From TrEMBL:
A GO MF term: phosphatase activity
Occurrences of domain FCP1 homology (ranges): 163-316
Superkingdom as given in the UniProt entry: Eukaryota
Lineage: Eukaryota, Sar, Alveolata, Ciliophora, Intramacronucleata
PROSITE patterns, A to Z: FCP1
Name of the protein in question: FCP1 homology domain-containing protein
Amino acid sequence: MNSKTMCLQKSRVNSEQWKLLQRDPQLLKLAQQLNRNRTQSNITTSKQIKIGNQTISRIKLDSIKNDQNDVTQYQSEEQAKQKQTITSRSAQFTRKINLNNHIQLKKVHHGNYFFDKIKEILTSDLKDNSPLKKMSRDALNQIHMMITYQEFIPEVSLLYQGKSQKQLKIAFDLDETLIHTEQVQKDKVYDFQNNEFGVYIRPYCHHILKELSQYADLFIYTSANQKYAKTIINLIDPENKYFKGHYYRNNCITLQSRIQVKHLGILSNDYSKIVIIDNSPIFYMGQPYNGIPIAPFIDDINDNELMKLLNFVTEKLLQSDDVRITIRRFFQYDMFRQFSDGIQAFNILYN
């Protein structure tokens, strides 16, 4: 045994153990072999270790702890990147949510879509004068009004000239349907915000737009002004891949009673294959049986109405020869005629 090996061996055993090894050649040979194995495993290995989402090539087994520290630092850096600046056509927003934080998707049956959510809101602990409860009561009364109110609806010119082989056309409202905006409050964390206002994106918004765009031509039809609406649209569809067209306040018509209406005639001449989704039913008074109400949204992170809507559209409307017949039956719009207002109709029909 050379002096180098002896020094190496002595560094791993005490004096008594060393004397014992010298008396037993077989035991000494075994100790030398163990020493070589330890040395090799500490010096080199070709194994790959996967920590989090990063594949790390390691040289020493002892370096695992250091690698894990590197991963922790990497994750901290990723979290720091959550505040991203997104430049839209007319404003600059800071995104406060994690871009990689995917919502767990669960299939939700539509059930009594819309009415179940309205009931949940109206029976909640919210104050009666809270915006959410007020908008819910307004939606019920607007259903009653659009069915019973009589006023001449003028014809409009077709604005959308695109051609498609898809089964359906769907127009989405913006505010309280897909998003909610408000003046920035310091104690709130928004999905996006700039110096003017904060924006909450309704849960599952991007998911249903992606899913429905496979079967339908999607549009935005809002009563908001064009500058504001374009800013919001650029946040929910920055690559302009979901919506075939955007229509604004100037594309609405104003009746003699000064009621503003979104006329679907600007999108299609075939009313059997077009719907509008809006939290304010009064806006589709011109074509009541083409309108799908949706419960208002403000900031509820547990809201899943868009998933119920997706289920309703795919299971009911895509199979329908005429969406007006399906909508008329499902929402029992005509039953509202029997009551003095929408809240009374709701309390009797759905409670």
